[in-house]
Known about the structure:
Distance between the termini: 64 Å
Strand order of the largest sheet: 2-1-3-4-5
Oligomer: single chain
Number of strands: 5
Helix content: 40-55%
CATH class of the domain at 2-131: Alpha Beta
CATH architecture of the domain at 2-131: 3-Layer(aba) Sandwich
CATH topology of the domain at 2-131: Rossmann fold
Order of helices and strands: EHEHEHEHEHHH
CATH superfamily of the domain at 2-131: Response regulator
Radius of gyration: 28 Å
Strand content: 5-15%
Amino acid sequence: MRRLLIIDDEPIIADGLFSHVQEQSLADLEVYRAYSASQALSLLRMWRMDVVISDIQMPGMNGLELAEYILRAWPRCQIIFLTGYDNFDYLYRAQKLGTIQYLLKNEGYPVIMSALHKALSQLSQQERNQQLIARAQQQEQMLLPLLRRELLLDLLRGETPSSIQQRLESLSIPMQTDAPVLLLTAVICSSERTHNL
């Protein structure tokens, strides 16, 4: 379940957008609204939000300051700024924060909904990427003993030091191939005779 928070100090904007998003019946999307940054902070202390649609110019804490707070807590949160001002300074500061879209309020619901769908798609893509990375790391951990065994056999066969050094580094084995190495092998076996000693 994803969460969307709509923040605007103009109730007509916040309520209108809230109603419009709910009418769209987006599956798995809980929608919240706040009429100030302080109300938004109260909600943000209770729940993690996946997407925030916020006015930039609000009394007290502005949308940019609120976005900094949100991104410190949840770096993956997608933020969409709505503003009545075509202000380059706001746009520049918003872009510096990253994961942010900047829209004019008069662009209408279709543009806002398109930005919301884009934000939700980006979140899904990020999750898929994280799952792929986690799966690759898990597979690498499972293969590590086999790769180390193969490396040891190649060392015993006298492989060239340059290829061995790269493999040592990739397996996080701290060893320099240009320094002499003493290799000891031992066989440990368990028998009744050794237990009785």
